[in-house]
Structure formats: structure tokens, C-alpha cells
Amino acid sequence: MNDVTNFPADFGKGLTAKQAIKAKALSERTNDEILAAVIADLSALPSRTFGNEAIHQRALGDLRHLRQRLRKEGA
Predict the structure, then answer these.
(1) Assessment of whether the complete model's pTM goes beyond 0.90
(2) pLDDT interval class at 11 (50, 70, 90)
(3) Centroid of chain to Cα 15
(4) What residue ranges do the domains of the chain occupy?
């Protein structure tokens, strides 16, 4: 079970316990993990979601480039 007691007193005010636990878990993810998940989700979407294939591929390319840059910088 995740412990959310180390959060500031006002963090998550108005959230349910389940939402607070999820927020804590998300806050512990690294930038690389977050970008990997976003890239995977975006890759799974049909290109028509963005209007055309070029926009879809550009978005994926930009995210991959950002992920590589963050890795090189050690973020």
C-alpha cells in the first residue's frame, strides 16, 4: 500500500484517497518514464486523430528528440 502521509498537509486537498495515491505514484516517475509512456500512448493512436500522418509523426519525433536530449543531460 502506498503511503501518502509524507505529502505536504495541503497537497491533494479535495482528492479521494485513491486519487492521492495515484498522484503520489505519478510524482515518483522519472521524466524518462513519463516520456516513454506518452510516446507509447501517442504511437498507439491512429494518425487520423491528429488530422494527418505528418502531424502525428512530427509529434512522435519531437517527443523522442526531447527524451534523448533529457537522457544526454542526465535529467
Answers:
(1) no
(2) low
(3) 20
(4) 31-73
